[in-house]
Write a structure and sequence with these properties.
Strand content: 15-25%
Bound molecules: adenosine-5'-diphosphate
InterPro entries: Ald_DH/histidinol_DH, Ald_DH_C, Ald_DH_CS_CYS, Ald_DH_CS_GLU, Ald_DH_N, Aldehyde_DH_dom
GO biological process, one term: carboxylic acid metabolic process
Structural class: alpha/beta
Number of helices: 15
Keywords: NAD, Oxidoreductase
Number of strands: 20
Protein name: aldehyde dehydrogenase (NAD(+))
Subcellular location: Mitochondrion matrix
Radius of gyration: 23 Å
Shape: globular
Strand order of the largest sheet: 14-15-16-13-12-17-18
């Protein structure tokens, strides 16, 4: 699409850590194996990473088990734990630019997005959960009879966490922040596409005083390392973010092993609804952002753009013009809005969906092709005349493909927006308070953004209705995922 910007803006970055981090030590895989990790700008290998399997997961889980059962972690005062989280966040802040560069190198997202938004949000999230560590407490319960009853809120134990590749640092923060604030210990498996930044920050965590064994990082693939973690008998809780398909597998593995509780943050097909009273230029920009942000690789992407028939033509013309103006190119260059997709598999998948859109007779307004001959760049693509039963309106594409649908009235659009197995998020664009209220009450989704989109404060809960997931992350709600409630009951008087 548009011309790429000039200057390379990043500091050079080195890859220092490629091994697992278990019990405070960097160690090779038990098997001695490694796997390549790539630069999505070129498809070239940038490092070889220790490849985890069941044996590495076993070692990591026993380190986490020991750190939980024998201390020091849950035995420290909450204030001491809070101080370590704060020191860690401050250290990350000092390494902002290297971390952002590493994230961009491995993931392909625009460097400025990583440097100005994602690393700062990571830091903010750890500050937020550090604040919770010493404010977690139970209740005194007025039960019938002469009993003194209290509830203790205790950590669950060893938490297994499996994260995806689209926001490697933020997904680490959403999982690790609340788990550690509550006093749990962790084995985290990164996505095979993006192992680098988690190892880097985990090293900083130990510099900040985190005791060995509290946070263990294993790199590797899903069906091997991931499945071993989900089915481990000594893991007390599992948290997963990824596709709905894999979420089902994780839930099943947890059920078949030790019935560990599971939280899932899965796929979506989120509606973005533009009402007839909308201010069009603003709506165009927000709908564009809602879909194209992060190369379209967001679980909550506004991937069904519903536009009221009275403003449809104007919206469409402007949405197309905006997509044509989107700057795609090297994510390290200043001014670039869109980098490459993460890998060849995702790249091919997105191109298949584009072909399916064309075959199903949606109108291809712009884009539709790859850019260049190396790396995984795709033109910003807009389809109009999209019908509800087309594959591009039903499946999660996870790429820079905007589908525009027409609607007539609010009741109709609520029904159509809800006619999906997903329920992660929704966007609503209107100047009418009444319309906004009707839509926010009617939409079955875990987040409804009104006249905004992708607002991700540390305090705002995030998660899905229906097949978009189980449970909420961030905010006070995430603490519940990592706490057990113990009722303690005793007679008021000795018998
Ligand atoms: P995507 O299709 O976007 O790569 P996945 O849901 O497959 O998303 O991956 C998200 C995370 O789940 C990654 O860390 C991946 O390695 C892991 N994973 C994939 N398959 C399994 C599995 N069978 N068991 C446990 N984890 C898995």
């Amino acid at each position: 699409s548009a011309t790429a910007a000039e200057e390379l803006i990043t500091p050079a970055v080195q890859i220092s850590y490629t091994q697992h981090l278990i019990n405070g030590q960097f160690v090779d895989a038990a098997s001695g194996k490694s796997f390549p990790t790539y630069d999505p700008r070129t498809g070239e290998v940038i490092a070889h990473i220790a490849e985890g399997d069941a044996e590495d997961i076993n070692r990591a889980v026993s380190a986490a088990r020991k750190a939980f059962d024998e201390g020091p972690w849950p035995k420290m005062t909450a204030y001491e734990r809070s101080r370590i989280l704060l020191r860690f966040a401050d250290l990350v802040e000092k390494h902002n630019d290297e971390l952002a560069a590493l994230e961009t190198w491995n993931n392909g997202k625009p460097y400025l997005q990583a440097a100005q938004s994602e690393v700062p949000m990571f830091v903010r999230l750890f500050h937020y959960y550090a604040g919770w560590a010493d404010k977690i407490h139970g209740l005194t319960v007025p039960a019938d009879g002469n009993y003194h009853v209290q509830t203790l809120h205790e950590p669950i134990g060893v938490a297994g966490q499996i994260i995806p590749w689209n926001f490697p640092l933020l997904m680490f923060a959403w999982k690790v922040g609340p788990a550690l604030a509550c006093g749990n210990t962790i084995v985290l498996k990164t996505a095979e596409q993006t192992p680098l930044t988690a190892l880097y920050v985990a090293k900083l965590f130990h510099e900040a005083g985190l005791p060995p064994g509290v946070l263990n990082i294993v790199s590797g693939y899903g069906p091997t390392a991931g499945a071993a973690l989900a089915s481990h008998m000594d893991v007390d809780k599992i948290a997963f973010t990824g596709s709905t398909e894999t979420g089902k597998v994780v839930l099943e593995l947890a059920a078949k092993s030790n019935l560990k509780p599971v939280t899932l943050e899965l796929g979506g097909k989120s509606p973005f609804i533009i009402c007839e009273d909308a201010e069009i230029d603003h709506a165009v920009e927000l709908a564009h952002f809602a879909l194209f942000f992060n190369q379209g690789q967001c679980c909550c992407a506004g991937s069904r753009t519903f536009v009221h028939e009275r403003v449809y033509d104007e919206f469409l013309e402007k949405a197309k013009a905006r997509a044509l103006r989107r700057v795609v190119g090297d994510p390290f260059k200043n001014g670039v809005e869109q980098g490459p997709q993460i890998d060849s598999e995702q790249f091919e998948k997105v191109l298949r969906y584009i072909r399916s859109g064309i075959e199903s007779k949606a109108t291809l307004e712009c884009g539709g092709e790859r850019i260049g001959s190396k790396g995984y760049f795709i033109q910003p693509t807009v389809f109009s005349n999209v019908q509800d039963d087309m594959l591009i309106a039903k499946d999660e594409i996870f790429g820079p493909v905007q589908s525009i649908l027409k609607f007539k009235d609010i009741d109709e659009v609520i029904k159509r927006a809800n006619a999906t197995r997903y329920g992660l998020a929704a966007g609503v664009f209107t100047r009418s308070l009444e319309t906004a209220n009707t839509l926010t009450r009617g939409l079955r989704a875990g987040t409804v953004w009104v006249n905004c989109f992708d607002v991700f404060d540390a305090a705002i809960p995030f998660g899905g209705y229906k097949m978009s997931g189980i449970g909420r992350e961030k905010g006070i709600y995430s603490l519940h995922n990592y706490l057990q409630v113990k009722a303690v009951v005793s007679p008021l008087k000795n018998p």
